[in-house]
Amino acid sequence: MKINRRAFVEATVVLGAASQMWNSAGVSLAHGASAGDMTVEGMTTLAVRYFSDLGYSQVKPRPVISDAEFNGGLNYDEDGIGSVATRSVFVVQPCARIEDALAPNKPGTLPLFTVLGFCPAEASAKQRRTRDLLTFMTVTVGLDPKRLRITTTDLARPLFPEFNSFGIGLAQIRIQSLEKAKADGSGSGWFEPKGHPNNPAYASYSIEYLMSNGAEIEIAEVGVEPVAPHNGGGAIGLERVTMARNDRLMTSEHVMPKFKQGIEAEAGRLGKPLPRGYYAILGLEQPG
Fold first, then answer.
1. More exposed terminus of the chain, fewer Cβ within 10 Å: N or C?
2. Domain 5-282 is classified in which CATH homologous superfamily?
3. What is the residue extent of each domain of the chain?
4. Cα separation values, 218 from 62, 106, 188, 204, 245, Å
5. What are 95-114's pLDDT values in tens digits?
6. Contacts of 99 (CB under 8 A, 6+ apart)
7. Residue (of 239, 270, 244) closest to 31 by Cα position
């Protein structure tokens, strides 16, 4: 679906709250927002306070530049915190994804974005991931439950009563086959991206939000608590939740210059060469 450019608005995209490395680089991803809009910086602060108040401990994010060839040497997601089972943790992780940057007309895609990943201790027993996530979405942020959609497989049926308690009825839940979800591996039923260095593989569901202009954006992916393995956490796209909250889309062109500046600054600090994904996202030829 191609979005009319007039539907795009500049909005604040602040990743400084996600990682001190971006602050130390002097990289500000701030842009002006319309009156009454929440900024991504404000959403990040809100999310950090929410999960901290619930007893989650914040852990340090990883650099955007990874040591893996996967995704062109760029950090893809927050995967890894789910292995911490003895305590509830969350991370505010800056990420970049080549496939998103190569689809600039897809609603909500940005070359540089922030994921809040969270994993409660013993989540499998208490279905806490779903409860904490949907309380944040519908109560703290104030998203309209009628605009929420869930994409998953039959493995998530034990969670349907929990979804319904938050105003998400059966008509808003889309079921695909487990075979199709596993073949895709993107998180809308099963999270197992091909070539991922941490080899995640678990049942999941994605949450989408229907904007007033008809665009639908994915705002979160979460592990299905009742299904083993239980170490799949939850991931909230902070830019996309901000878009949903403001009912306004952001466009990748506003973030692209800061992606370039930030990756270059980080490569310099880490003493690493610019990764392949840097050139792919910018559409540049990689030096031999």
1. C
2. Bira Bifunctional Protein; Domain 2 (3.30.930.10)
3. 5-282
4. 23, 11, 10, 13, 13
5. 998 888 777 677 788 888 99
6. none
7. 239
